[in-house]
Amino acid sequence: GAGVSQSPSNKVTEKGKDVELRCDPISGHTALYWYRQRLGQGLEFLIYFQGNSAPDKSGLPSDRFSAERTGESVSTLTIQRTQQEDSAVYLCASSLARGNYGYTFGSGTRLTVV
Amino acid sequence: AQRVTQPEKLLSVFKGAPVELKCNYSYSGSPELFWYVQYSRQRLQLLLRHISRESIKGFTADLNKGETSFHLKKPFAQEEDSAMYYCALSAISGNTPLVFGKGTRLSVIA
Prior knowledge:
heterodimer, A: mainly beta, about 45% strand, globular, B: mainly beta
């Protein structure tokens, strides 16, 4: 597609349930990033995939969070046993191999845990 | 550790007035600095990169390594400039994820 696509755009879930968020990057972009943005806060780095290298998971806040990427295509971010503090907008971005040319962001998934 | 500080949460200026959005960074290596912008109901998008030394929509930003700053400037603000602005930093290799500041909301008053 022409841009980074994220689904769903909105997700309301009950505390304790698992959720899966999807990101479809721009074709040819080998790097893919997940960020979280809580209300009134900046972007918090979660995880970074670059080609076939091991992902940089240093930003994942707990072991309830995990992400996968199939080759250089779709990525899914999974949050298990959701908590209210997980409520945020989850943003995905992709870039060429080296991110110096800038990232292209998706429109985000707004997650609300009730 | 990499850190980006945007000291102002909100900046209000009158149309036609000069704008300066402040950004300071902390990084021991060679940094690459960016400004991203998010207009109302739109996606976060790249505004400019320091390495390309470009002017986008009248905005410029100069990297000052001595002051570790990358302030965003525009001589005459327009109403359509109202948006959230984020300063971001990465290693010059581009192989590390961007670190973002908390953002500054610019409001241009007619």
